[in-house]
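[step 3/7] inverse_fold.run input=structure_tokens len=121
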């Protein structure tokens, strides 16, 4: 069984070779299943499929990280590299936009400040 933390430090070529060996093993196991192979081989199919998924996940993460580094200083970032968040959060006003006030509003607040009331004890 391949652990994700073990394959994170491998290079792209090592990952792809590992992927090829796992895919070859999976095809051999599928042939064994069709021809009526041992139960242990049939049970191993699931773990090999999961290993392939782990390898592909790490490979895709490394590719995306490389693209992020390449696009780090650029003005525009492609959509798949941007932060996902939620649609509402992406469209929400920024803090600066939220706190921006018109000239009229600023004058009004200066002329009529919030009243302070003394409360009798």
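[step 3/7] decode complete -> sequence:
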């Amino acid at each position: 069984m391949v652990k994700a933390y073990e394959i994170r430090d491998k290079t792209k070529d090592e990952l792809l070779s590992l992927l090829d060996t796992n895919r070859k093993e999976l095809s051999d196991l599928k042939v064994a299943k069709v021809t009526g192979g041992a139960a242990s081989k049939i049970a191993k199919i699931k773990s090999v499929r999961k290993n392939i998924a782990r390898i592909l996940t790490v490979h895709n993460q490394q590719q995306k990280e490389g693209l992020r580094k390449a696009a780090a200083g650029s003005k525009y970032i492609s959509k798949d590299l941007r932060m996902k968040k939620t649609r509402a959060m992406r469209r929400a006003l920024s803090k600066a936009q939220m706190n921006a006030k018109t000239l009229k509003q600023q004058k009004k607040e200066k002329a009529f400040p919030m009243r302070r009331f003394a409360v009798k004890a």
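[step 4/7] annotate
Residues 39-70 form the longest helix (32 residues).
The helical segments are 4-7, 12-34, 39-70, 87-91, 95-99, 103-111.
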